[in-house]
Write a structure and sequence with these properties.
Elements lengths: L14 E2 L14 H6 L5 E3 L2 E8 L20 E5 L13 E2 L35 E8 L9 E6 L2 E2 L1 E6 L2 E6 L6 E4 L9 E8 L12 E2 L3 E2 L3 E6 L2 E12 L6 E11 L4 E7 L5 E8 L3 E9 L13 E8 L5 E9 L4 E3 L5 E3 L2 E2 L2 E5 L13 H13 L4 E3 L7 H10 L2 E5 L9 E2 L2 E2 L13 H15 L5 E5 L8 H11 L6 E3 L38 E4 L3 H9 L6 E6 L10 H10 L3 E6 L7 E5 L4 E5 L28 H9 L4
Parallel strand pairs: 26-27, 26-35, 27-28, 28-31, 31-32, 33-34, 34-35
Antiparallel strand pairs: 1-10, 2-15, 3-4, 3-6, 5-13, 6-12, 7-11, 7-15, 8-14, 9-10, 9-12, 16-17, 17-20, 18-19, 18-21, 21-22, 23-24, 24-25, 29-30, 36-37
Helix pairs in contact: 2-3, 4-5
């Protein structure tokens, strides 16, 4: 198969030869490797790559992936990093519009008509910058002779991959891992990997988040070797009994490679005592069902207790060939008959924030130190919950939330704000994904990737379909995907509030902008387990809670911490004491999106926000609505948060 640039224009082509999403577990050759967190099966490709930039697809260097290409005129770029922050392309911060608005006429393919494919929309787009990456590498000796795949943790926005001149695959979905099998083309030495990254594709319509619009390989890249027998996927099922005291443990493994040997499953408590030790024959799938655990230690924000799972794969001679560790907890999230959200049988209150991934020098290419600093800030300010706005985060963040008892709303990579809201008014004439058939599979695939990758994380209490994308049959399909797994978590989505008439539940609500658009189907009964709004004033929140609420209520975004903000926070917090159906929310947002630049006039390093880079269109200071400045210095509003969130710790 050859690469086809026309895939950029087609919403139904979003993965080509990409391996299916699977659990995010690590694997090692033995216990010493696990202790050192250094697996013989993994080789990093992070570092300096050769790089060439083109302003548009028509200007790109064709055949840049050929192994014998003269690359003396190529530059170098760090991987991971953002192309724009290496000064190749325009920095642009934008919120509710889309970068080409008023410059290039585009509409989402098939949104206005089943015959409107928008051919050439991105494959010939004058604004569609291209980054061409090359990396020459030798395989580490430990990886040679094995099945080899490559994992890209995050690439904005559409990528084509070649190895040694052979086309390997294509992927979109910027914020979940993309893996490809390299085995047919890999050599022990002298490999040439080439990646072509396009800033825009049909994915741009559904990645219209409130953020700087970057591009490039902005998360890590690594090679992964497959042991002779390998745990390809793992589903952990710790289920708390109705007595909130005992539990049942289940495990499903999908194995690849040789079907011989033994799988040993161990579970240990935090003190290292064995609670389960069972061996089973290696098969394509291995299952443990309903193993009873008495008097389990529950996981929550105050006591994030985790058990240690160890999966050992032994060959026929008894030799350990693979070790898979994973920590998990017992907890139960549910909605009571009177519409109160409960965790472990007790009322749940979310003292949350929305958190963009951000570093004031690296943009969304955040570091482990950034993540650890954010966890520390959470603890210091009584923040117990995070919404991964509005995409999946780097994998280590989920492990940190497990370990630190941070309640997670794990959001799918979806926002299509510009397709349904025009100049502040609801106007969904070309909304996607909506109910447009050609946009169904791409968003269901994103939901599937989000679920499969992060399904084993105890911290995740809510799956979220995405953000500000209106509603439609395709959103219903995403909800059904999450519910089909019966994992006990709740599903969240806010956009259905624009399809339902709330005049009886919230009588004083100004109907402008909130009553359903003409002819719009009411999706409220099909989407979201909870009633979720943004910035609904406390008066209207209270009206909803006073009028026989049939769903628990939360504010998935509230307070909007821009400028001298957060002064009215107490009005929301008071409602927590009066109405158990109200379970809090997530402040918008945690950290400013701003970048440190050197000002040649003053000779000082200064923060620059939206509009400061001659970027047009721009939403200007709206990039600065965090509880912290971009350098992670808390703003005065954080004191308000620490006080009021401390009332319901």
């Amino acid at each position: 198969m050859d690469a086809d640039i026309k895939w950029l224009d087609d919403p139904e082509t979003f993965r080509v030869n990409q391996l299916p999403a699977h659990s995010d577990h690590h694997y090692y050759g033995n216990y010493a490797e696990w202790s050192a967190d250094k697996s013989r099966f993994e080789q990093s490709l992070d570092g300096q790559w050769q790089f060439k930039f083109a302003k548009s697809p028509l200007e790109r260097l064709k055949g840049f992936y050929e192994t014998d290409l003269d690359t003396t005129d190529f530059d170098e770029i760090e991987v991971p990093s953002e192309i724009e922050l290496s000064d190749y392309a325009q920095n642009n911060y934008i919120n509710t519009l889309i970068p080409w608005e008023g410059k290039i006429y585009r509409r989402p393919a098939y949104a206005l008509s089943a015959d409107d494919a928008q051919a050439g929309s991105f494959s010939e787009g004058a604004d569609n910058t291209v980054g061409m990456y090359r990396k020459t590498f030798d395989l580490d000796p430990a990886l040679r002779g094995k099945q080899i795949r490559v994992r890209f943790e995050g690439v904005e926005r559409a990528m084509f991959l070649w190895l040694n001149g052979h086309f390997v695959g294509y992927a979109e979905d910027s914020f979940t891992p993309s893996e490809f099998d390299l085995t047919p083309y890999i050599e022990d030495t002298g490999n040439v990997m080439a990646v072509e990254v396009f800033k825009h594709s049909t994915a741009s319509w559904i990645e219209d988040q409130d953020m700087f619009r970057f591009s490039g390989i902005f998360r890590s890249v690594s090679l992964l070797a497959q042991p002779v027998t390998h745990v390809e996927d793992m589903t952990i099922r710790p289920v708390l009994d109705d007595n909130y005291q005992d539990g049942k443990f289940g495990l499903h493994l999908s194995l690849a490679g040789e079907e011989s040997g033994t799988v040993r499953v161990l579970v240990k408590d935090a003190e290292g005592q064995d609670l389960l030790d069972q061996s089973l024959p290696v098969k394509e799938t291995v299952d443990l069902e309903d193993v009873a655990f008495k008097d389990v230690h529950l996981w929550d924000n105050h006591d994030p207790y985790l058990y240690q799972l160890l999966v050992e794969i032994h060959d026929d001679a008894g030799q350990l060939v693979e070790l898979v560790p994973y920590r998990f907890g017992f907890r139960k999230i549910e909605i009571s008959p009177d519409h109160v959200v409960l965790l472990n049988g007790k009322r749940l209150i979310i003292n949350g924030v929305n958190r963009h991934e951000w570093d004031d020098h690296r943009g969304r290419s955040v570091t482990q130190a950034d993540m650890q600093a954010d966890i520390k800030t959470f603890h210091e300010n009584n923040i117990n919950g995070v919404r991964t706005c509005h995409y999946p985060d780097q994998i280590p963040w989920y492990y940190l939330c497990d370990q630190n008892g941070i309640y997670m709303m794990a959001e799918n990579n979806l926002e299509s704000h510009v397709t349904w809201q025009k100049m502040g008014a609801i106007e969904p004439s070309y909304n996607v994904p909506g109910s447009v058939p050609q946009w169904k599979e791409v968003v269901v695939d994103r939901a599937r990737s989000n679920y499969e990758t992060f399904k084993n994380h105890t911290a995740i209490l809510f799956w979220s379909l995405g953000n500000e994308s209106f509603a439609g049959d395709n959103m219903v399909a995403m909800q059904k995907l999450y519910k089909s797994h019966h994992d006990g978590r709740l599903v969240h989505y806010e956009g259905v509030c624009h399809t339902h008439d709330y005049s009886k539940q919230i009588p004083s609500l100004d109907p402008k902008g909130y009553l359903p658009a003409g002819g719009t189907k009411d999706y409220r009964d099909e989407i979201s387990d909870v009633e979720s709004w943004m910035y609904l004033p406390p008066k209207q929140v209270e009206e909803y809670l006073q009028n026989n609420p049939d769903k628990p209520f939360m504010e998935c975004e509230y307070m909007h911490d821009m400028g001298n903000s957060d002064g009215g926070m107490g009005s929301y917090i008071k409602l927590l004491d009066k109405y158990p159906q109200y379970f809090g929310g997530f402040i918008w947002d945690f950290i400013d999106q701003a970048l440190v630049v050197h000002d040649p006039i003053s000779g000082r390093d200064v923060m620059r926000y939206g509009g400061d880079f001659d970027d047009r269109h721009s939403d200007y200071e709206f990039s600065g609505d965090g509880l912290m400045f971009a350098d992670r210095t808390p703003k005065p509003a954080m004191q308000e948060v620490r006080y009021y969130y401390g009332l319901h710790k």
